[in-house]
Amino acid sequence: MEDDYDELDDVIMQKQSKGESVKKEHDMLNKAASHPLRREIVKTIGAFGINTDELSANIDEEPSVLKYHIDFLLNGELVRIENDEYRLTEKGIELLSDCQSGKSNPKC
């Protein structure tokens, strides 16, 4: 089966470079900060976290839409679930700080 070798397999299995990882992280932060609902979610979770019911009660949005954006933030490692509460990760806290200061990210 040596004839089945494809150079594309090497490309797919290749680990991201440091520069690619940083670019991906910046893109994720930009996408999170550029969407008003995601910014609202991050601000609502805040530095101390919030449970699912409280988050739903504080954000007036359809549950499926809210879940979609929460999943985006979870996948982007901006939010994590800890003890049945949403909590911001270090990246999420950085985004919250930027949004509160309004200096680093004018989209906030």
Tell me about this structure.
The protein contains six helices and three strands, in the order αααβααββα. Strands 1-3-2 form a three-stranded antiparallel β-sheet. The protein has 108 residues and is mainly alpha-helical.
Layout: helices, strands, pairs:
Layout: H1 7-13, H2 18-34, H3 36-45, E1 50-51, H4 52-58, H5 63-75, E2 79-82, E3 85-88, H6 90-101
Antiparallel strand pairs: 1-3, 2-3
Can you describe this structure in just a few lines?
The protein has 108 residues and is mainly alpha-helical.
Summarize this structure as a short list of keywords or feature phrases.
108 residues, mainly alpha, three-stranded antiparallel β-sheet, 61% helix, 9% strand, elongated
